[in-house]
Amino acid sequence: MALLTAAAAAVVASACGTQPEDLPVERPPVVDDQPEPEPDDDAVTDDDPDELATDDDEAEPREPDPDPEPDLTVALTLTEVATLGSPTAGAVGPDGVLYLADRSGTVHPLTEDGAGEPVVDLSAETTTESERGLLGLAFAADGSELYLSSTDRDGASTITAVAVADGRILPEERRTLFRLAQPYANHNGGDLHVGPDDRLYLGLGDGGSAGDPLDAGQDLTTPLGALLRIDPRAGDPYAVPSSNPFVDVDEAAPEIFAYGLRNPWRFSFDPVTDELWIADVGQDRREEINRIAFEDAPGANFGWNRMEGTLPFDGDEPDDHVPPVYEYETRGPEGCAVTGGVVYRGRAIPELTGVYLYADYCNGSVRGLVVDEDGEVVEQRELGIDGGQVVAFAPDADGEVYVLDLGGAVRRIDPA
């Protein structure tokens, strides 16, 4: 099964008849994501010099310890910790537990004995045909909701919000937050994360088929081929932050945060630097990895379908094209469909601190990528461990990284 690269033959029917409507039905409201702070009558002001003095006035600020130099020759091993039918994503809950998504539609806590019993089951509401299924999950920053990204029975990309109370997931208390009909059965994207600004981010592919026949990658009127940012707790069913780059652009989808993506198969935020990493699956010639500072990400154009990596694909290179920091040949020695990963920030393997970990669905060798502040590749190499059909990486509460194999295994990266 080629979850990432197979071109679907069947076309999903457009919304009609009894098929549910896309959500939101109307343009979502805009919320101010930087509201003015409420005045504090008790706040210390410059008129209260006595209140400003502290015992630490003479103390010099302490510089943080520098990260150790990366060493991609460190000896590693993969420790199998659980088995599911087809694990696809993972996220840490408010209870500190790593929860795992199975493509069939279930969510499981990772326990000392492996994958626990499902705490949410959407299997009756999703399909695993072609590149579909339960593809992503994330918890709200305040731990009040669990967000699930899946394709429903009609093939639409859907986000379901499940209530969480006192760290306990309440599967019966849920709502459909977002729904978008897909024109084809592939390139659904579906990765889901809460960003450093506590907003919810969803990666969507260009709608499918091959070569982006809808020109969705460069079309700002559709959420397809883009990274979306929404506020799930404002509006009905959600709102968009006022700093989204195309909120005031006529006919543009206000949810778009960045665009020009073919099939962003896994993106992540570095928990230390906030940098955004996006791996984008290529068409025929290039698999690409993009990295961009969080403050530079709004409105970023990653080029598809005018560009495939650094190569022209259809038309001229956009003036605002953000090129990848690393790319490799599609169907070459490194694989055929990139699987994006995470920047390692755990403690068990200090040699990997700051290293971006990734793999390829067709070549399960886990790789490390070191990129300097100027976007130049310092080093890239295989790390000597093979994760199988790697479809995702998931860090736990301690920053240790798990490799998810679509064949069923969940393995932790450990020092050898």
Q: How would you characterize the overall build of this protein?
A:
This protein has 416 residues and is an all-beta fold. The protein has a single domain, classed as 6 Propeller (Neuraminidase), CATH 2.120.10. 1% of the residues lie in helices and 38% in strands. The protein is built from one helix and 29 strands. Strands 3, 4, 5, 6 and 7 form a five-stranded antiparallel sheet that branches. The chain has a four-stranded antiparallel sheet with strand order 2-29-28-27, with no helix packed on it. The protein has a four-stranded antiparallel sheet with strand order 8-9-10-11, with no helix packed on it. A hairpin with a 2-residue loop joins β10 and β11. The radius of gyration is 22 Å and the shape is globular. About 5% of the residues have low confidence.
Offer a quick outline of the entry.
The chain is an all-beta fold and 416 residues long. The chain is 1% helix and 38% strand.
Gyration radius from CA atoms, angstroms: 22 Å
CATH topology: Neuraminidase
Number of helices: 1
By helix and strand content, what is the structural category?
mainly beta
Largest sheet: 5 strands, antiparallel
| CATH architectural name | 6 Propeller
CATH superfamily: TolB, C-terminal domain
> Distance between termini?
31 Å
Number of strands: 29
Question: What are the defining features of this structure?
Answer:
mainly beta, Neuraminidase, 1 helix, 38% strand
Topology:
Layout: E1 30-31, H1 49-52, E2 76-83, E3 87-92, E4 98-102, E5 106-111, E6 114-115, E7 120-121, E8 134-139, E9 145-151, E10 157-165, E11 168-180, E12 192-194, E13 200-204, E14 226-230, E15 240-241, E16 256-259, E17 264-269, E18 276-280, E19 286-292, E20 307-308, E21 311-312, E22 326-329, E23 338-343, E24 356-360, E25 363-371, E26 377-386, E27 390-395, E28 401-405, E29 409-415
Parallel strand pairs: 1-15
Antiparallel strand pairs: 2-29, 3-4, 4-5, 5-6, 5-7, 8-9, 9-10, 10-11, 12-13, 13-14, 14-16, 17-18, 18-19, 19-22, 20-21, 23-24, 24-25, 25-26, 27-28, 28-29
